[in-house]
Amino acid sequence: MIAEAGLAALWFAGALAALQLVMAAIGIARDRDDVAAAVRPVAIVQGLLALLAMALLIELFLGSDMSVKLVVENSHSAKPWLYKFAGAWGNHEGSMLLWVTILGLAGGAVAIFERSLPERTLTATLGAQATIALGFYAFLLFSSNPFARLNPAAADGLGLNPLLQDPGLAFHPPTLYTGYVGLSVAFSFAVGALVTRDVGPAFAKAMRPWVLIAWIFLTLGITAGSYWAYYELGWGGWWFWDPVENASLMPWLAATALLHSVTVLATRDGLRAWTIMLAVVAFSMSMIGTFLVRSGILTSVHAFAVDPERGAFILALLAIYIGGALALFAARIGTVRAGTTFDPVSREGGLVANNLLLSVILGVVLIGTLYPIVAASFDVQLSVGPPFFNKAAGPIALLLVAVMAVGPLLRWRRDDAKAVLGRVMLPIGATLVAAIALLFVWPGVLPWAGLSLAAGLAVASVAPLWKRNLKRTPLFTYGMVIAHLGIAVSLAGMASDSAFTQETLVAVRTGEPARVGPYTVTLDGISPVIGENWSALEARLTATRGSSERILRPQLRFFANPPTSTNESAILTVLDGQLYTVLGQPDGQGRWQLRLWWKPFVTLIWFGGVLIALGGMLSLLGRVRRERRTAMRTQWA
Amino acid sequence: MKAKHQRLTLALLALGAVVVAGLLALSALKDQAAFFYAPSDVRRDGLPLGRAVRLGGMVEGGSVKRAADGITVHFVVTDGQATTPVVFAGIVPDLFREKSGVVAEGQFQPNGSFVASNLLAKHDEKYMPPEMAGKMHETKTLEPDAKP
Fold first, then answer.
1. Which of A271, A337, A367 has the CB atom closest to B25's CB atom?
2. pLDDT of residue A244
């Protein structure tokens, strides 16, 4: 019954999405305020129904209902509770349902909380959101039904890919999706504003919190995914330029650009057309990412099934939504009058540079990601990996960091180049000092530039607080400071990891020491361990550094359902970096392979990521507070 | 500057940025994209020296040999028509075994052997590299027993 109820909830939600679209269209085209007024409640109920369907799917996984095809194919009754729960979205259908649920909830949230947008634009926005939802409900119901039954029922399931059996599965996908799909709100806002021709500072101020929320979640999701891949895969890397990773990076790049251009629109009424364009592009990147990951043209842990029909379906949705939004943009943008002008040397100028550079990086990543697919259709098989992305995107990213250091020190509208030079002296000094100091340990060109610029950016990012009354400085200024500082911290971690990582690969007997970085690692012994649904060979390693002695226990883990083994790394985190250990195979003569890394300051990468998200949160809080205060003031006046 | 002019300038700048991105990407792709080879491709087209490529095929039965250091592995990749000897130092992936599919990342040596810096095997029993699936269809003589 649960499966049927879930399917029914999905159908109802789809029908409500259709209703929502029709009512919004009537409300706007016929100027019927009474019809338009009902769009909000419909959007809320639609979101709740999608949530109900998701909850029912989770219930099926928790109860190990082996008469449901999806549960049989992706779960097992002996799986720990957490992975039954999170396993609900550890497969194609379930993850698409999560996608649609978040889409519906995002629309519902707009319907509940958005009060500053003119009612007509809001109706159009919710209509656009319903249009997107309708397509993806159709996708779920017609080609990816998560509630399909299996007759006769199976005795037990096939199990979940062991690489996914990690607490990360409970956190990473929902967080990433909230960001990823949350960008649909920006897309719908843009479409709504184009429909009602209402693009201005008020619109930008209304859109900004929604973009911020999506961006915060996207940042956290990417950071979490990166750390998960880092410790789970046992390869010692934290970013592989895998197409699936790029699929999450591209919306982030676009959303970051949008976040900055929407500020120009809100504060200075500039960059109108560009901001609308970016809002369309950002969610388009989310959809392209969904297509890449869910169509089965890529092979990775994320691509669960290969089915050409599904790929064609998503591709068609992509064409309709992106093409439709761009056509609307082309038709309407002429009627949106240009905003106010500004000097090239100004805060706006800096933000334009930020946007251009982010767009170039986005373009490079997009081309690099799609190239193998295009080549494959010409029967050429190739892969594009880290060498390409590092070479093509790395230098531009560093240029962006330089712009990021200067930008916040510029005044709005017009600034004096000489005065600016005076303000950036200190950051430039910091960069030069770091650059010269690093010459003595030469880490390679990119890491050298990265570390030097990170030093400069760290100084520059706190400079806006210089000589200010810290108590009276608005919260969103702190947000910017912390987010930019986060970039500097993260960049320092990346550069340090790529420059100073030391790796040792050895086969050792018990008691035989191996050296890596400042550590001496000794294999004390190997013993078997039993987990809830796995067994493992566990190495006991003693890592000594000076007088400190720590124990690490990397494992070689064997899963029965499905029959797979994984290398569970053991990581020792200390203030100045991480010792990363992986246990390999025995060589048959009493020796065991050990792969050891010493990674100085690698943790800064994710710490920086969290700081960036924290900056976003402060900014969000500051903006919402100020809007509320302004609203109260106008109410009283 | 008039608003209209500034908008035009910005639009041109944006266009320029897109063009720059395209040119940059394409020029970097020229020497950074890793092409995929099967052993018989190499026999037919010659050795792609001096660049990172991927070599794919089946690990030949009985060909896996571990060197005395306990780290280096020698094996032979075959696609049913030709073979390439591969050397790899490191921890082989969980599902690396004889008569099973593998994709090796690395460089060909002038003597025709392949030095791998990384090995990709199946993630789980459902996984097969898409390039492999394609290659396996081409060489019908070989039974892809990696498939479940």
1. A367
2. 84
Distance, in Å, from the CA atom of A212 to the CA atom of A214, rounded to the nearest integer, reads 5
pLDDT at B139 over 50: no
Does any domain span residue B108? yes
pLDDT in tens, B22-50: 888 888 888 788 888 888 888 888 888 88
Residues of A in contact with B70 (CB under 8 A): 506-507, 587, 589, 591, 593
Q: Chain B: give the shortest CA distance to residue A598, in Å.
A: 16
- Taking the Cβ of residue A257 and every Cβ of chain B, the question of whether any pair is shorter than 8 Å is answered with no
Tell me: do B83 and B24 sit in the same domain.
Answer: no
> Which of A383-392, A498-507, B61-70, B95-104 has the weakest average pLDDT?
B95-104
| Nearest C-alpha neighbor of A497 from the set A279, A109, A213, A226 | A226
Cβ distance of A338 and B3 shorter than 8 Å = yes
Residues 6 or more apart whose Cβ sits within 8 Å of residue A15 = none
Dihedral sign (CA A88, A90, A94, A95): positive
**Spatial CA neighbour of B92 closest among B84, B82, B102, B83:** B102
Neighbours of B26 (CB within 10 A): 13
pLDDT, greater one: B100 or A25? A25
Taking each helix axis from N to C end, the angle separating A272-294 and B3-32, rounded to the nearest 10 degrees, works out to 30
Whether the CB of A338 is below 8 Å from some CB of chain B: the reply is yes
The whole domain housing B25 covers 1-32
A152: cis peptide before it, omega within 30°? yes
Q: Are residues B17 and B87 in the same domain?
A: no
CB pair distance less than 8 Å for A589 and B70: yes
Contacts of A383 in chain B (CB under 8 A): 33-34, 36, 54
B66 and B132 inside one domain: yes
Instruction: Count Cβ atoms within 10 A of the Cβ of residue A374 and give its class: 0-12 exposed, 13-18 middle, 19 or more buried.
Output: exposed
Residue B67 and residue B11 share a domain:
no
Instruction: Kindly list the residues from chain A whose CB atom is less than 8 angstroms away from the CB atom of residue B17.
Output: 356-357, 359-360, 363
Among candidates B3, B28, B54 on the partner chain, residue whose Cβ is nearest the Cβ of A383: B54
Please say if the pLDDT value at position B135 is more than 70.
no
Do B126 and B59 belong to one domain? Answer: yes
Separation between Cα atoms, residue A466 and residue B87, nearest integer Å: 58
Length of chain A: 637
The pTM assigned to this predicted structure is 0.91
Number of independent structural domains in chain B: 2
Q: What is the DSSP string of A216-274?
A: HHHHHHHHHHHHHHHHHH-SS-S----HHHHHHHHHHHHHHHHHHHHHHHHHH---HHH
Provide the token pair at A289: 């990412």
Same domain? B28 vs B40:
no
Shared domain for B13 and B46, answered yes or no, is no
pLDDT at B40: 87
Whether B21 and A364 lie within 8 Å, measured CB to CB? yes
How many Å apart are CA A513 and CA A508, to the nearest integer?
8
Chain A residues near residue B127 by CB distance under 8 angstroms: 299
Contact A301 B29 (CB under 8 A): no
The pLDDT averaged over each successive group of 10 residues in chain A (637 residues) is 94 97 94 90 97 96 93 90 92 93 96 91 95 95 92 87 85 92 95 91 92 96 92 84 89 96 90 92 93 70 60 88 94 82 88 93 93 82 86 92 92 87 91 94 91 95 87 90 97 94 92 93 94 91 94 91 83 95 86 93 97 96 86 74
**Assigned token pair, A214:** 């999506």
CATH of the domain at B129: 2.40.50.140
Task: Indicate the domain borders of chain A.
Answer: 1-165, 197-221+237-418, 424-501+606-637, 504-600
The complex's ipTM works out to 0.79
* Secondary structure letter of residue A57 according to DSSP: H
